[in-house]
Amino acid sequence: MNNLNSLSDPSLHIDKRIQVQDSKLVLQNRLRLKTTIDCVKWLAMQACAFRGHDESSESSNRGNFYEMLKYTASINENIAEVILENAPRNAKYTSPDIQKEILNILATRVRNKIREEIGDAKFCILVDEALDESNKEQMVIVLRFVNRDGFVQERFFYVVGVDETSAKTLKKGICNVLTRHNLQVENMRGQGYDGASNMRGAWNGLQALFLKDCPYAYYVQCFAHQLQLALVAAAKDVPDVWKFFSKLNSIVNLVGVSPKHHMELKNIKATELADMLASGELATGKGANQSRSLQRPGATRWGSHFGVVSKLIEMFTAAQTVLETNGAYNSTKSFKFCFLLFLLNEVMGITDCLCQVLQRKSQDIINALDLVSATKCNLQKLRQDGWDAFIGDVTSFCISNKIDMPDMSAHYKEGTGRSCQQNDNITIEHYYRIDLFNAIIDFQLLELDNRFTERTTRLLVLSSALNPVNGFKSFKIDDICSLASEFYPGDFTQVETGNLRRQLKLYEYDVFHNPKFQNLTSLSELCRRLVETGKVSIYFLIDRLVRLVLTLPVSTATTERAFSAMKLVKTTLRNKMEDGFLADCLVIYIERELARNIDSNSIINDFYSIKNRRAPLK
């Protein structure tokens, strides 16, 4: 009777039982693989190493990957039943090859998302190269574009290991990456590099090679790099400033190299802060009154010159105490040293604001040029009107630190003081105000003028006509039409150029008086406002031209950040990483907000479809 009931119950038939078992097995396999994917994703997004020195089951520390699996199993019984020792030997999904395969799928998904963001839009490449931990040259490729919502994006895309840094080798590596992801060189509308000769060479440089393939891929040298070159030139070419930084380097070396001096400096400063907080001279707050140290300025570290100058002013008394038994102490007791310390703090403080702004990803080239002009105006204002306030600050500082003040009306003695070297008409005030204060500011202004020559180029002069700042004050229909016809003929046909002029006339009466377009501060904000208000469908040709200008690069700060990330990923203990593995780790770590939103089930499906798997996943 029981057998008869079994035969009459379809759920007990053998094919149904096998189907139930197969479904259960698939769920277990997918759960096991999903756990591995989650661990790989988390480790990659935190730039952590995967493997350990000893991954055997007897090891007390099997490495980050295995330890994370064990921790996950300890808080979830369902996972504990299917992973590690409870997993079948042919489907553990824990081998290094499986980890790299999953990582590559995840990285490919991130790059595909970036490619989808670009869509049919024009793009710009930002490229730089540097040595990694294994002393191998790595080339970073960053893509700059304007997305559908009008936001400027700079996305890290790839890092390529190169044997040499000639322009032809770099171009070949870049083209291989672009072709692999269906990005055409013909759609490139900008190139951003540093000032190295292999990059900016007018005949055989990388920018020249790409211009041959796409004449609209205009090259712009990194603004932040140009600013740093101007600061370094001031530090090297002005004799008094060069001597100042030589003394400053000696002070930093004495304090920073010796662990004893370093700790003594920190302890003295900590005591000072505690006394000032107790007396109410300083206010408490989040992030305030942190322990700091002196760092040597570097020619390639943006903002490092200003950083060391401002920190020395802050820690001046503590530094003097540490240096009392050293010859460098006499330098800190000099009025001239303090004068230059405050002067360079003022000058480099103004340029440091520009340096910080230039490193923003969303910065557009028109706004950047306006900021350069504003920086020059601030320096000029300091030269013309800032002397009285400046010398007052220096005097107060010297009095509080017991530094002898010279008589400003006294005769200034040059050189060794011999009569043949003297100029009877020069007073000490004249020397400090004209020969130092004015001369150093003038040299900095001259360097900024020489470095930032883009204002004179026709492309950027015409582009400024689109600038919405000050109620579209720079708006000129003829200049905008010339911009489209002269520099972007591949993006505008003759018919569209005529339509552009008609759109501009309507745009002038419509947008200028629209309250939603008032008080705009940048071209990128204008682009977003056109999308938000839906006027992009009316003024689509203007929108196209605005996006092309926004695509032009401003700085290579994003590539520099990628190199900083590379130091976290490829460390001394991980210096044997393959190039592909490094590229996958970096794109997941840097673009983690994209990687975080990738569904694990989609990765499982990709993993299953790549090749035949022994264990069923579907």
Number of helices: 28
Q: State the low-pLDDT regions, or none.
A: 11-20
Percent strand equals 5-15%
* Rg over alpha carbons: 31 Å
Largest sheet: 5 strands, mixed
Strand order of the largest sheet: 3-2-1-4-5
> Which structural class is indicated by helix and strand composition?
alpha/beta
Q: Give the CA-CA distance, first to last residue.
A: 38 Å
Shape: globular
| Residues in helices, as a percent range | 55-70%
Record field, number of beta strands: 5
Mean of the pLDDT scores? 86
Describe the structure.
The chain is α/β, with parallel strands linked by helices. Helices cover about 60% and strands about 5% of the residues. It contains 28 helices and 5 strands. The protein has a 5-stranded mixed β-sheet with strand order 3-2-1-4-5, with helices on both faces. The longest helix has about 30 residues. The radius of gyration is 31 Å and the shape is globular.
